[in-house]
Design goal:
Elements: E1 2-7, H1 14-33, E2 40-46, E3 50-53, E4 58-61, E5 64-65, E6 74-77, H2 84-90, H3 94-103, E7 107-110, H4 115-119, E8 128-129, H5 136-142, E9 147-148, E10 154-157, E11 160-163, H6 169-180, H7 183-192, H8 217-228, H9 236-242, H10 247-258, H11 262-280, H12 285-291, H13 297-308, H14 312-319
Parallel strand pairs: 1-2, 1-6, 2-5, 6-7, 7-11, 8-9
Antiparallel strand pairs: 3-4, 10-11
Helix pairs in contact: 1-6, 1-7, 6-7, 9-10
């Protein structure tokens, strides 16, 4: 039988504790209904017997203290809330335990911004990781040695798993169900919980907010200029000259400050404007394309799909039910 330990950290988001518990207990029921033995022993573990969450609105009673768990097979690290630095500090006693369990063979899986607590162990240094897209800039600042994968629903690195934001973690739960059981059981679970088993990206849900939490004032001014003039065709050379820098120096500083190349940043600002237009207006594809400074339909479609995971038509149909003016 596989031991599944679900951490209950201080400031945990209650759903991210309850959902993996519900999922793996339900899978046991599915297995029993098909004449098989239950596979998972699911336990809530923490630093205390009772953990109060959401300003004491919820009270979670743990099955075991982490000091009582000598061996486990899979540990879930749920999303945490509030100030991240404070949350990590409140749960710092979990960090050596997580490291020791992983070294003893346990797999670790973070849900949404539980990735911050996972990264605080140092086990993700030099590895890939997913988290909520809205926390990406803060994560990169706190953990520069971790390779954050934008838009990814799931990452897997040597027995360490992480998931994208909010409900994206259900995809990771299904992924692990399939890994520990089989495809048929995972499909059954996906139908029971009404979760799309094969969605691989959170790109369609992302809103681009350029990284501005840096000290390079020239680059910040360049970012604001790009955002104020996204309808225009602006070259990298023009921007470099505008801020009296050589092109190579400008590109290097821009990448360091924003985690995007200049071209990537301009593309993402244009596509973000296009997304807003598709969501709120009745303009057709070409009108939106021209509004954000593209004249080549193929280029616009290619960049749009690369960033959002959807074609312009698919995106408009997903988020805007008004008839277009085509």
């Amino acid at each position: 039988m596989k031991k599944v330990s679900i951490l209950v950290p201080e400031t945990a988001i209650i759903e991210a504790v309850a959902d993996p518990c519900y999922m793996f207990k339900a899978v046991n029921q599915f297995l029993q209904a098909s004449g098989k033995e239950p596979l998972f022993r699911v336990e809530l573990v923490g630093l205390s017997r009772e953990v109060k969450l959401d300003n004491s609105l919820f009270s979670v009673h743990t099955d075991k203290l982490i000091s009582e768990v000598d061996q486990t097979d899979l540990i879930f690290i749920p999303a945490i809330s509030g100030d991240i630095t404070t949350a990590i500090d409140l749960n710092k006693e979990m960090i050596p335990w997580l490291v020791a369990q992983h070294r003893a063979g346990a797999e670790l899986a973070s849900l949404c911004i539980g990735a911050f607590l996972l990264a605080a162990t140092g086990l993700l240094d030099g590895k890939k990781c997913s988290t909520h897209w809205n926390a990406a800039n803060e994560f990169r600042n706190m953990f520069p040695l971790v390779e954050l994968v934008d838009g990814s629903i799931i990452t897997e690195e040597q027995g360490i798993y992480s998931s994208g934001g909010a409900n994206s973690y259900w995809r990771l739960l299904l992924y692990l169900v399939e890994k520990y059981t089989d495809r048929d059981t995972a499909i059954l679970a996906s139908k029971f919980f009404a979760v799309d088993i094969d969605r691989e990206s959170q790109s369609a849900f992302m809103m681009f907010r350029g990284q501005k939490d840096h000290a390079d004032t020239d680059i910040l001014q360049a970012q604001l200029f790009i955002e104020d003039n996204f309808q225009e065709k602006i070259s990298v050379d023009e921007l470099a000259n505008r801020y009296t820098m050589g092109r190579r120096s400008f590109e290097r500083r821009f990448k360091k400050a924003t985690n995007n190349t200049v071209v990537e940043y301009m593309q993402r600002i244009k596509i973000e404007a296009a997304k807003r237009s598709f969501e709120s207006s009745r303009k057709n594809i070409n009108e939106v394309m021209y509004d954000v400074g593209y004249t080549d339909t193929k280029a616009f479609r290619t960049v749009f799909k690369k960033i959002t995971g959807l074609t312009p038509i698919e995106y408009r149909n997903k988020y805007n039910k008004q008839p277009s003016l085509n």
